[in-house]
Please model this.
Amino acid sequence: MAAVDAEIIAFDVFGTLVDWRSSIAAALAGVGGRAGLEADWPAVADAWRSRYQPALARVVRGERPFQSLDVLHAEMLEEVIAEHRLQALGNTERRELVRSWHRLAPWPDAVPGLTALRARHILTPLSNGGIGLLTRLAKTAGLPFDCVLSAELAGTYKPDPRVYALVPAYFEVPAGRVLMVACHPADLQAAQRAGLRTAFVPRPREWGPAGAAPPPPAGVDLVAGDMTALAAQL
Model:
């Protein structure tokens, strides 16, 4: 693998830095329990997340106008409520669940790894989450970003190349001076097409309790077991 001389490191967030599955399942259990509901809450969390990529893809294809991820999450939640017969959840509880995506727990290595990386690099998320969501998430999870860049700034979602172009444009650096870090191969492949360098960090639990991480995409510049290992490589 080629050496990487990156000034800016951009991170996917959901799954790469934070454990959305456990966090959302816990939020659903808490809110649903208060409403007197019983369900397989991890399965409900997965059902909610399964609608994520199809919803974003419709925006990228121009089939619907851009709206924030909070709006899309609220729409997806309505479908999940109907599917799992959770209509006892009121409007207040539904809003609370949408905001639970602003309060996801980090993977254990995320904060120490990013802290080590920040000593020599500028760190930013490059996520489909909105600026408000990402700012609150970084604060509650303790993620030490230097700034917050979001797909929201491009008015579209990954893998649209306009999202990846945000980082070199805002920092006025060549694309090759930006390292994109993610656990999702498709995210890294899109970043490669935009000229960014790439680092793959496998997150087996991102693919379910019994899941296995996919192999790194072809041409990836770095592979690291976690964020502290990535910091050691750089």
Notes: The radius of gyration is 18 Å. The chain has a mean pLDDT of 96. Strands lie at 8-11, 18-19, 105-106, 122-127, 149-150, 178-182, 197-200, 222-223.
